[in-house]
Design a protein that fits this description.
Radius of gyration: 22 Å
Low-confidence stretches: 1-23
Helix content: 40-55%
CATH architecture of the largest domain: 3-Layer(aba) Sandwich
Oligomer: single chain
Distance between the termini: 54 Å
Structural class: alpha/beta
Shape: elongated
CATH superfamily of the largest domain: P-loop containing nucleotide triphosphate hydrolases
Mean pLDDT: 85
Bound molecules: adenosine-5'-triphosphate
Largest sheet: 5 strands, parallel
Length: 304
């Protein structure tokens, strides 16, 4: 997604699925039990036009999930992805809702804006908490009334847009401190989905690593290496603060530097973990899979 904000429209993603350069996955790798449950939740929410709010740390796959929701909804219009943190301050309203010719200096022609471009489809607003407050109220009004008034226009235009929003911050807290519109929060909260950080769905780590390895090997026309047992252990123990995106970058890097048929720990380019962090990784894994086993482990440790 373009992050420039010189006042030009930032909309770029409508057909990113078709870009040969984009790794944007078609498949959602969801193997861990928590991910499977999430997948079921999303499958229930996807049909129809209810708004959805996806809460999750950076790089967890929120946009991929939003695309999946759009695909499964069978809405005929486009999936339009916009990062609210990249919105140009001066032209935010015109970017979002469009404008008429001559609405402001330099606006020679009219534009539908992101909202209008998503007509009949899905508008994905990433980091919705970064949307300026006055626009939050206008967004809610447009969603509820199903019409928008372009900047400079006298009459509203009918629109049918499904909103899927994402946030990495706690919007309830933002409402509490007056930074987020309470009614917009209620509107969004009806279809709320929590996307857990990667470290809390450890059984996704290796399948995702294999998946990215396969995709990058194919794209770069390289032979597919194996991930050595030691590298697998490192991948599983690492806490992935940058989540799936960080894993993707690490695997991509490893493929480029491994020059052989096996990925070793040193190819992953991850900071070395202190002993306690490795232990924490193993404990997280055990806790996710088998609480009884974890309790037994603690009992053994405490018994000396
Ligand atoms: N479950 C998954 N299966 C396959 N690929 C995934 C999965 N989750 C994330 N990815 C990939 O990881 C990368 C990051 O995902 P995405 O951009 O959707 O995250 P995000 O949460 O929207 O990030 P940000 O918070 O920075 O906006 C993308 O390349 C995406 O295709």
């Amino acid at each position: 997604m373009s992050k420039e904000n010189s006042g030009q429209p930032l909309l770029t993603f409508a057909d990113a699925d078709r870009s040969p350069l984009s790794i944007r996955a078609r498949a959602l790798v969801f193997v861990d039990e928590r991910s499977r449950r999430l997948r079921e939740e999303v499958d229930q929410l996807a049909p129809g036009d209810l708004p959805v709010l996806i809460q999750g740390e950076t790089g967890t796959g929120k946009e991929l999930l939003a695309r999946q929701i759009h695909r499964s909804s069978d809405r005929p219009g486009l999936f339009v992805a916009v990062s609210c943190s990249a919105i140009s301050k001066s032209y935010a309203e015109a970017e979002l809702f469009g404008h008429t010719p001559g609405a402001y200096n330099g606006a020679a022609s009219s534009r539908a804006g992101w909202f209008g471009s998503a007509n009949g489809g899905t508008l994905y607003l990433d980091e919705i908490g970064d949307l300026p407050l006055p626009l939050q109220a206008k967004l809610l009004a447009a969603l509820e009334s199903r019409e928008v008034t372009r900047v400079g226009a006298q009459q509203p235009t009918p629109v049918d847009v499904r909103l899927v929003a994402a946030t990495s911050i706690d919007l309830a807290e933002a409402v509490r401190v007056g930074k987020f519109n309470a009614r917009l929060y209620q509107y969004l909260n009806e279809g709320r989905v929590e996307l857990p950080p990667l470290r809390e769905r450890p059984d996704d780590i290796l399948p995702l690593a294999e998946y990215f390895l396969g995709i990058y090997a194919q794209r770069l026309d390289l032979p597919l290496p194996l991930i050595s047992a030691a590298a697998q252990a490192v991948l599983e123990a690492y806490p992935w603060p940058g989540n799936t995106r960080e894993l993707e970058n690490s695997v991509h890097f490893a493929l480029l530097v491994s020059e052989g048929d096996e990925i070793l720990p040193q190819h992953l380019n991850l900071p070395p973990l202190p002993g306690y962090a490795q232990l924490a990784g193993q404990l997280r894994r055990l806790a996710a899979n088998d609480e009884a086993q974890l309790r037994q482990l603690f009992a053994e440790v405490l018994a000396g």
